[in-house]
Specification:
about 300 residues, alpha/beta, Rossmann fold, 11 strands, globular
């Protein structure tokens, strides 16, 4: 199995950006472009079963496997060995993958900005409720379309895309659809794979592991999101040795794709504490900036 990672070609501190279930790395493009202009080097991972990455060989999509994808990319691209290391930026399951990767191998990430990580909090059954609901909804969704135009018309403003700004929705379409065998297009993330990932979100093994993380973590959420209520967001931050909680008013669970400028500003403010990358924090972007990210493929050890 190979993983796709998209390099936005900046010259500053590397930021590994990880998406949530059903999305893909290039959904981060509106945020990444703003961070790139500020002197960072954003890279965006397609988790297994998403975007241009391969499907999981055994059909499983547990949180520990998403964490393994993060570690495989860090190792395969030599990011952790760069001066100052690499910071992580994640949304939902992507935020959980970064936290789990850091907990499984402490010190892998210099800092983590985690938007609404999906972690089961002791005493709460929210994850079980939402996981079952989302998995059932995914199994019943429409996945195939006669054309890109039909897919755009069907998906725009529907479900999670009701929270997406136009730029983020177009970014989703760029990598979220692939040709099917009937001459049309289909969602790159198969319904059965997405449902499996949602079902795995109810796992409770990650909670205790959070205490092994060494990186400073900003646990950030939206004031209008039902996915991670403020008390649970604060509990996750408190469980981390160096966690802090923050709520951005008016944003929903898909805040990074709802308000890219506000999210990029928050990430940039948090990233000011990062050490400079090889090109310096204020180094200008290299030639080619603005043409879209370059795709890199990384093999996952032991995954076929």
């Amino acid at each position: 199995m190979r993983l796709a990672c998209w390099d936005f070609a900046g010259a500053g501190t590397p930021l590994l950006m990880v998406h949530g279930v059903g999305l893909h790395g290039r959904c981060w493009a509106p945020v990444a472009d703003l961070l790139l202009a500020g002197g960072s080097r954003p890279l965006a991972l397609d988790l297994r079963g998403h975007g241009a990455s391969g499907r999981s060989p055994d059909g499983r999509y547990g949180w520990e496997l998403f964490a393994a994808d993060v570690l495989a990319v860090l190792d395969g691209l030599g990011l952790a060995a760069q001066p100052g290391g690499v910071a992580g930026v994640g949304h939902s399951a992507g935020a959980s993958a970064l936290l789990r990767a850091e907990a499984d191998r402490p010190g892998s990430l210099s800092r983590i900005w985690a938007w609404e990580p999906i972690v089961s909090v002791p005493g709460s059954d929210l994850r079980e409720q939402r996981s079952a609901e989302l998995a059932d909804r995914t199994r019943r969704r429409r996945s195939r379309f006669s054309s890109l135009a039909e897919a755009r018309a069907h998906l725009e403003g529907r479900g999670m895309f009701a929270e997406f700004c136009p730029e983020a929705f177009e970014a989703f379409l760029t990598g979220g659809l692939v040709p099917d065998d009937a001459g049309g297009v289909q969602l790159a993330c198969r319904a059965e794979d997405e449902a499996s990932a949602y079902a795995a979100a109810a796992e409770r093994g990650s909670w205790a592991r959070l205490q092994a993380a060494r990186s400073p973590v900003a646990v950030v959420g939206g004031g209008a999101s039902p996915a991670l209520p403020a008390p649970e967001l604060e509990a996750i931050a408190a469980q981390l040795p160096a966690g802090e909680a923050k709520v951005l008013p008016l944003l929903g669970h898909f805040g990074p794709f709802q308000a890219p400028a506000a999210i990029a500003a928050d990430i940039a403010g948090w990233a000011r504490w990062l050490p400079p990358g090889p090109g310096g924090r204020n180094a200008p972007p290299p030639p080619g900036t603005g043409r879209g990210p370059d795709g890199i493929h990384v093999p996952v050890p032991g995954a076929g």
